[in-house]
Amino acid sequence: MQTRTLGQLAEHVGGKVFGDGGIEIKSVATLDAAGEGDISFLANRKYEKQVQSTTASAVITGKKIESNASLLIAEDPYYALMQIVVLLYGHRKHAETGISGKASIAESAQIGEGCHINDFATVSDKAKIGARCVLYPGAFVGAETRIGDDCILYPNAVVYDHCKVGNRVIIQANATVGEDGFGFSTHNDQHLKIPHIGSVILEDDVEIGAGSGIERGTLDNTVIGKGTKIGDLVAIGHGTKVGPYCLLVAQVGVAGSVTLGHHCIAGGQAGIAGHIKIGNMVQMGAQSGVHSSLEDGKVVLGTPAFDVGLTRRIWGTTKNLPDMRKSIRKIEKRLANLEGNDKS
Q: I want to staple 110 with a disulfide (CB 3.0 to 4.6 A). Which of 4, 21, 128, 170 is the partner?
């Protein structure tokens, strides 16, 4: 970790200092945990009061705000935070092990320059690994799979045969790419496995979270677009096409043959039904159940997923149902009494 003055950090991120630019910043911390020598940040307005009480030496904000700490004003505080964390801490350093004698590498496999392949990693027949890749212990690359440059496969990450992985792709521990899709033909009360002859393509700068599964296509390829980030325990069904720069948060489930546009966001545990089309820049809230196609720019929430405004009104009404039930019973009694009086 490196120490920088607040002024140096502001120059690094293209921001401005309000306060003492000569303060030395040693580390980054949350608003409530930060102390002397720490810099924190405000990216969500609901934490604004904490800026006033924090004991951090400095806070990254998007505007001038009351605080005992010095401020670093940046156009995009969260992006500025990312730049500062990278500057002070750097990304994870990988041990330069070279090619371990305990790794299993087929004679027909091709390994690029500067790769580090650790104990018990496997590179199968005719697989090709690009330059400067890191395969952690237990990582597996199937036959005739292509891995681009500067990729990282963490422990027990698996890429099945005939897959294609772009450059700078990260596959976290225990994730699986190219597994057989969940496709069966039910005949005479038996579920008969359908061979999946498609593959999986991960484009450049994709990240796959720990424990996730990306199924290969039945006939066509499953594709994860450039720059898309997939969280932990996410399931992507066979033949699905995820556009570039999407964010799929932990435990999202996407069924087969779905198409997602660019810059879509799916919150944790959202579920997307098969054979539908999600437009560009669509946002699906946590635990949304998406059963039909969505147009560009839609923001949906709930199960089934409706427009976020409608869902909030439905939820607001739901909490009033017990009182509404009492009121309806009172009205029914009054109507019954009126009807009784009319008959008499």
A: 128
